[in-house]
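Section 3.1: Structural characterization of target chains.
Under the original work plan, the team committed to producing a structural model for every single-chain target entering the pipeline before any wet-lab resources were allocated. The record below documents one such target. The sequence was received from the expression subgroup and is listed exactly as submitted; it comprises 212 residues.
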Amino acid sequence: MTTTCFIPPTFQSRVVPVIVLTDAAHAVPLAHALLDGGIDVMEITLRSSAALASIEAVAKAVPQMHVGAGTVTRVAEVQQVIDAGATFALSPGCTDALLDAVQAARLPFIPGVMTPGEVMLRREQGFSLMKLFPAQQAGGLGMLKALGGPLPDVRFCPTGGVSVDNLGEFLKLPNVAMAGGSWLTPVDAMVAGDWARITALAAAAVAVARSV
């Protein structure tokens, strides 16, 4: 089976904010704040009832932002995120039914993996970019270095335990295409409308990424 895989050649940022939005009204100002900090990609996770409306708001109002759907775990969600305007999707894991759905919909997709066997299986299915999740629990930097030996043609987006403090170490690895995390969009900053703080966090992460 050959499956659509996602390689983002147009992204400027190697940092992917992993975002839980509970108020769709925050979506557009958040997208602008991230862009102002140099990040042109955002993963809005399907962990709240506001997620689809948030994706749709960004897709319509901020076309320069690459907005994707995270935590896509069910077949029915594939068409839902496409209808909302998501240009790609990510999952913490993967099932054959989910892969069939993204392939049929031609939705660029980053499947989640945690073990070498899962990496090999997804590679056979046509993926060259995968989400290592949860990255720290899966072995973090050591796991990525180990995977790079026998599987040098696979690249990863680690999420789960990534922070501004270890971001540079992850991005230095040759098999890490990008890294994701939730530290870029603190809930209290969004609730307070402190978009300048989020822009500063984004700019700091971009500076780290550019330094490696």
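Residues 15-211 form a domain with the TIM Barrel fold (CATH 3.20.20.70).
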